[in-house]
């Protein structure tokens, strides 16, 4: 485990102390948990952006599904004749 020094604004420090006290944990533990959650969120957002760019490129190449096929597929959900997801055909 490494040590990092961080300068906190006074109001952030007050909230941090209150949270740590309420949880009966150290400020370091709270900071570590918060950063772990922030990093996970950033990784998810980066993956979503990558998928968005891939989808935009796919659409630019004409790999799209007609809306009527999608609506038909969605209407079939939960019925005896549930359809497979439509493909782009490319």
What does this entry look like structurally?
The protein has one domain (10-76). The chain has 90 residues and is an all-alpha fold. Helix 1 crosses helix 2. The relative contact order is 0.07. The chain has helices at 10-23, 27-60, 67-76.
Secondary-structure blueprint of this entry?
Blueprint: H1 10-23, H2 27-60, H3 67-76
Helix pairs in contact: 1-2
What is the radius of gyration?
24 Å
User: Helix segment count?
Assistant: 3
Query: Could you spell the SSE succession in H and E letters?
Result: HHH
The tally of structural domains comes to 1
- Tell me, what's the shape? elongated
Mean pLDDT: 95
Key features?
mainly alpha, 0% strand, 64% helix, 90 residues
Quick recap of the structure?
This protein has helices at residues 10-23, 27-60, 67-76. By secondary structure, it is an all-alpha fold. Helix 1 (10-23) crosses helix 2.
């Amino acid at each position: 485990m490494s040590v990092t020094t961080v300068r906190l604004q006074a109001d952030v420090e007050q909230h941090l102390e209150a949270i740590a006290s309420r949880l009966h944990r150290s400020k370091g533990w709270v900071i570590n948990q918060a950063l772990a959650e922030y990093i996970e969120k950033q990784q998810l957002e980066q993956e979503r952006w990558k998928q968005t760019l891939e989808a935009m490129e796919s659409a630019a190449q004409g790999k799209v599904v007609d809306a009527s096929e999608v609506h038909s597929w969605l209407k079939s959900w939960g019925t005896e004749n549930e359809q497979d997801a439509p493909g782009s055909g490319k």
